Recover the amino acids of this structure.
């Protein structure tokens, strides 16, 4: 079965905005259930989101999709999700060192709400798509998948849709939902959900269209970055736990 998707220009930033709005009540309810300060959680969430947005832009510049002159130009699109995640992780490590793991656990569900909505935006915008497959999804004409398939002669230019592709973006949405569920754990929700998301996303990357990324040996660039983030994330937090850094103190 092939699902036909008519792409919507600007779907990803719009749905990310919806995710940001939905993240606020989730944050309030989660901190209320945990008995922690919602205002501190809002400040932490703001810092992590800012780090992610900046990191995504840095990644686009490093990997050559955005010129340095257009770095702060809102009219020039370009962001790298893996680098955004890396910067969020670095910011989370800094916050955990000052405020303890509980501060990260407070905002973790809200972050996964935003990630899931952003990934859902990729489904409807067609910006991330999978390798060709017998069953899957096909994107409407003038979508990135359609252009790539026409360029390589896999479909005729008169085709109204791309060839069938693996549901890469939809699988990424599933990874975000699973991470959201794991993040609701009473303790270490952020650490467990981040590890789960990185592990799932690593395998989801095998469904991505290979021509849309760079391969370093047997794995793609995002997969190597995910492995590095997973190792650093787990090692740093475990080291700090052993050293007795703030963990579950209630403000």
């Amino acid at each position: 079965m092939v699902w036909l998707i008519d792409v919507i220009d600007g779907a990803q930033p719009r749905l990310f905005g919806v995710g940001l709005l939905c993240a606020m009540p989730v944050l309030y309810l989660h901190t209320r259930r945990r008995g922690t300060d919602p205002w501190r959680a809002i400040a932490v969430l703001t810092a992590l989101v800012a780090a992610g947005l900046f990191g995504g832009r840095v990644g686009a510049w490093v990997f050559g999709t955005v010129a340095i002159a257009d770095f702060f130009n809102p009219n020039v699109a370009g962001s790298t999700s893996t680098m955004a995640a890396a910067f969020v992780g670095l910011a989370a490590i800094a916050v955990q060192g000052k405020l303890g793991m509980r501060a990260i656990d407070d905002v973790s569900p809200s972050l996964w709400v935003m990630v899931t909505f952003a990934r859902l935006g990729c489904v409807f915008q067609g910006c991330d798509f999978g390798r060709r497959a017998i069953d899957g999804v096909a994107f409407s004409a003038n979508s990135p998948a359609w252009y790539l398939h026409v360029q390589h002669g896999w479909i005729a230019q008169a085709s109204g849709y791309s060839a069938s592709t693996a549901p890469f973006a939809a699988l990424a949405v599933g990874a975000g939902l699973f991470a959201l569920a794991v993040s609701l754990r009473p303790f270490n929700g952020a650490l467990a959900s981040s590890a789960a998301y990185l592990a799932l996303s690593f395998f989801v990357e095998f469904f991505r269209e290979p021509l849309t990324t760079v391969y370093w040996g047997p794995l793609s660039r995002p997969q190597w970055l995910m492995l590095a983030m997973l190792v650093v994330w787990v090692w740093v937090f475990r080291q700090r736990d052993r050293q007795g850094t703030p963990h579950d103190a209630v403000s």
